[in-house]
Design a protein that fits this description.
4-stranded antiparallel sheet, Alpha-Beta Plaits, 314 residues, 31% helix, 8-stranded mixed sheet
Length: 314
């Protein structure tokens, strides 16, 4: 798809420390070019309600759908006459599809939940990944969708109901304090600095502060430590963020590996363009195991920035 610059961003100034930092991590010019362009709109067809072919046929009268290579239910979508309100259709209201960023579809696919399993989405709101997990489970088994905030849970509940999810229990608790039985699989899509989401939230450029990264990484480590205690032996934990900061990504995985000898990072096999994994940055040096993780820069696939790790409990 052709890149479309976001109006008004030609005058945006990145903080000098941001430019210095990201110039060390990736191709700065390519990163900046994609970051200041519109994010392609994408949807995930909800097979809990209708088959993919039926919804494609219904939408194709007015919309052009392009298959997302790494998700068979996922499509980039453009209106044939230029409409942008993909969330304002009868099909959307009926829950036949969910408006979801294409990189956001990766973590549930990597988690690969099966029918009959017990699965936990520890930080679930607003429900894009939780509903995708339920879809992959075909509403069979038990999905626990947890979040910390009542306001966030309201959005989660509305989305799960609209999409016809029936195998889900919604809970409200701090993720680092969540207690319960052991789970076959856990998704920890952790709260983060959000530096991968600049394309849909330009204010992130102004809000970025290197001093907050350390405290955010501390919360992420608390969350992944508790998630690990909730995972069965032989189970799988997927850790993901929409951050591009090494301390929040490779650094958190490295910390888990150093503190849990039964943790093993597994390769992620997807039809997707990959960015460079960070094994050394400034004063940090990370385990070579993190090279099995998936780092997505906006310029790799014309998506948000994302990080995904698949970790097995031996």
């Amino acid at each position: 798809m052709k890149l479309k610059p976001i109006p008004g961003t030609e005058d945006i100034e990145f903080k000098p420390k941001f430019i210095e930092r990201y110039s060390k991590l990736t191709d700065w010019n390519e990163f900046k070019k994609y970051t200041l362009c519109f994010l392609p709109k994408s949807i995930r067809i909800n097979t809990l309600k209708k088959p993919i072919a039926e919804i494609k046929k219904r939408l194709s009268k007015s919309w052009t759908l392009t298959q997302i290579p790494w998700c068979k239910e996922g499509f980039w979508i453009e209106h044939k006459k230029g409409r942008l309100d993909v969330g304002n259709t009868i099909e959307h209201a009926l829950g036949y599809y969910y408006v979801q960023e294409s990189a956001s579809m990766v973590p549930p696919i990597v988690l690969d939940p099966k029918q009959g399993e017990k699965v936990l989405d520890l930080c679930a709101s607003p429900g894009s990944k939780a509903s995708q997990i339920a879809q992959l489970m075909k509403n069979k088994g038990v999905l626990v969708a947890n979040d910390v905030s009542g306001m966030r849970l309201a959005a989660l509940g509305i989305n799960l109901q609209r999409l016809g999810v029936s195998n889900c229990v919604v809970t409200q608790r701090k993720g680092e304090h969540f207690k319960g039985d052991e789970f076959d699989k856990i998704l920890l899509d952790a709260p983060c600095s959000g530096t991968g989401t600049i394309r849909k939230s330009i204010k992130t450029i102004r809000m970025w502060n290197p001093n907050t990264i350390k405290s955010i990484a501390g919360l992420q480590k608390s969350l992944i430590r508790n998630a690990w205690t909730l995972l069965k032996k032989g189970g799988t934990l997927v850790y993901s963020t929409c951050s591009l900061e090494p301390e929040e990504n490779e650094g958190v995985v490295d910390w888990l590996l150093k503190n849990n000898k039964d943790a093993k990072v597994e390769e992620i096999k997807l039809n997707i363009n990959r960015g460079n994994i960070i094994t050394e940055f400034e004063k940090y040096s990370y385990s070579k195991e993190v090279e099995k993780c998936l780092r997505l820069w906006p310029q790799n696939n014309d998506t948000e920035g994302f990080f995904v790790a698949k970790i097995k409990k031996k």
